């Protein structure tokens, strides 16, 4: 199938082009697509044998990638929201058996069909913001069977919603009650049973760990990453969210695609990311919802040219926000990111953070996933919230509006 998209106002994002705002809007551009991949971008491309589709001078960006979500779970944590408003902290609630473990309880009890049913409207909310790829983590099962159930549910979403899914095993998210005071024994299960089982069934593309005083130590994270790498899986971390344990630098040294949250990252950590090509994932929804005051070190990330990505972290405890454009808006208003930085953060840098290197750019050789917008300028995409200016999404060159 050969398709030519004409009359595009193409947002080209190439490193090296330093125009106003750091991106270029190319008027009257054409995009040639063959078998789902972009084979040419430019003007006056030869049209022979191509089916022609005019995008009527609308703005075209790469399809957005939400590179960090916990989209699959049952139950909600509105009660904890209230408890926090009455003065309890996220850590205190977790210590008392709530937090992640309360979602573990409801998720274990849910059938796979119910988990998929609950996740579909969340995915539908994301795609209304031009999202064509969603990363989904497990982490609310914490047994081999329940983690695999979550990963299977995540993959099943793509049968109901037209979107690419990439999955991450987050078995080391919290210590399950069965292993109270025996974290190393649980990490053994993650390394010796969970990761091999997920790899065997091809259920995970990556492995994540929550490295924090309330979760797992850098040494435990490193054992999990060793097992993941041995099985050919990518690695990434929830690191430096609430304190600085040095998890980000360790993850970077081990080859992590991304380290996520990173409010407490210091300059030596930032340098480690720069040195090892690890992406810094910013999750302003969690920062906002937990009413944190320590911001991620944006100026240091810029100084050391670390690529930044912006994601929803959609989850019931710290970021119940299924809108990626809202996160772009928050990354700008709360952390000071420019429009160029947020756009890169949901496209080419998000592709790097998920290891999906054929996505995130409109250029020859890349997948023809794009979003078409009813806006004049890229800034309008994240400027207003609630009135999605999306006109259409294309996956592999085919229109995908549901
Ligand atoms: O990304 N930080 C750890 N994990 C999730 C929160 C999970 C939860 O509270 O349910 C996060 O913020
Ligand atoms: Fe998260």
TrEMBL record:
Q: Which reaction does it catalyse?
A: 4-imidazolone-5-propanoate + H2O = N-formimidoyl-L-glutamate
Please list the residue ranges annotated as the Amidohydrolase-related domain.
59-375
Please give the pathway this protein is involved in.
Amino-acid degradation; L-histidine degradation into L-glutamate; N-formimidoyl-L-glutamate from L-histidine: step 3/3
The EC number of this protein is: 3.5.2.7
Q: Which residues cross the membrane?
A: none
The principal localisation class reads: cytoplasm
Q: Which residues bind Zn(2+)?
A: 68, 70, 238, 313
The residues listed in the UniProt record as binding N-formimidoyl-L-glutamate, with positions renumbered to this chain, are: 140, 315, 317
Which amino acids does the record list as binding 4-imidazolone-5-propanoate?
77, 140, 173, 241, 318
Molecular function (Gene Ontology), one example: imidazolonepropionase activity
Any matching Pfam family:
Amidohydro_1
General function of this protein: Catalyzes the hydrolytic cleavage of the carbon-nitrogen bond in imidazolone-5-propanoate to yield N-formimidoyl-L-glutamate. It is the third step in the universal histidine degradation pathway.
The molecule here is called Imidazolonepropionase
Give the species this sequence originates from.
Enterovibrio gelatinilyticus
């Amino acid at each position: 199938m050969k398709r030519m998209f004409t009359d595009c106002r193409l947002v080209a994002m190439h490193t090296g082009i330093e125009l106003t705002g750091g991106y270029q809007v190319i008027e009257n551009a054409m995009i040639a697509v063959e078998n789902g991949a972009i084979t040419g971008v430019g003007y006056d491309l030869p049209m022979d044998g191509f089916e022609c589709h005019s995008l009527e001078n609308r703005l075209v960006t790469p399809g957005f990638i939400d590179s960090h979500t916990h989209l699959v779970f049952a139950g909600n944590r509105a009660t904890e929201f209230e408890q926090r408003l009455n003065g309890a902290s996220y850590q205190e609630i977790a210590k008392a058996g709530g937090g992640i473990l309360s979602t573990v309880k409801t998720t274990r009890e849910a059938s796979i069909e119910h988990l998929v049913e609950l996740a579909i409207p969340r995915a539908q909310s994301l795609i209304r913001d031009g999202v064509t790829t969603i990363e989904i983590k497990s982490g609310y099962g914490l047994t081999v069977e329940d983690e695999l159930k979550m990963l299977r549910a995540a993959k099943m979403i793509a049968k109901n919603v037209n979107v690419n899914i990439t999955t991450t095993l987050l078995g080391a998210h919290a210590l399950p009650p069965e292993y109270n005071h025996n974290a190393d024994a649980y990490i053994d299960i993650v390394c010796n049973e969970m990761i091999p089982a997920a790899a065997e069934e091809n259920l995970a593309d990556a492995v994540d760990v929550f490295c924090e005083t309330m979760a797992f130590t850098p040494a435990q994270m490193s054992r999990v990453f060793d097992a993941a790498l041995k099985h050919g899986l990518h690695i990434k971390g929830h690191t430096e969210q609430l304190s600085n344990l040095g998890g980000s630098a360790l993850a970077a040294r081990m080859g992590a695609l991304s380290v996520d949250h990173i409010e407490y990252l210091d300059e030596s950590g930032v340098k480690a990311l720069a040195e090892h090509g690890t992406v810094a994932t910013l999750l302003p929804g969690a920062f906002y919802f937990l009413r944190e005051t320590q911001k991620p070190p944006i100026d240091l990330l810029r100084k050391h040219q670390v690529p930044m990505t912006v994601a929803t972290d959609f989850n019931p405890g710290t970021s119940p926000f299924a809108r990626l454009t809202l996160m772009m808006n928050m990354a700008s208003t709360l952390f000071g990111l420019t429009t160029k930085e947020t756009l890169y953060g949901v496209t080419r840098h998000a592709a790097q953070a998920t290891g999906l290197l054929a996505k995130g750019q409109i250029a020859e050789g890349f997948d023809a996933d794009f979003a078409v917008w009813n806006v004049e300028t890229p800034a309008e995409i994240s400027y207003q919230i609630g009135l999605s200016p999306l006109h259409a999404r294309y996956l592999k060159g085919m229109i995908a509006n549901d």
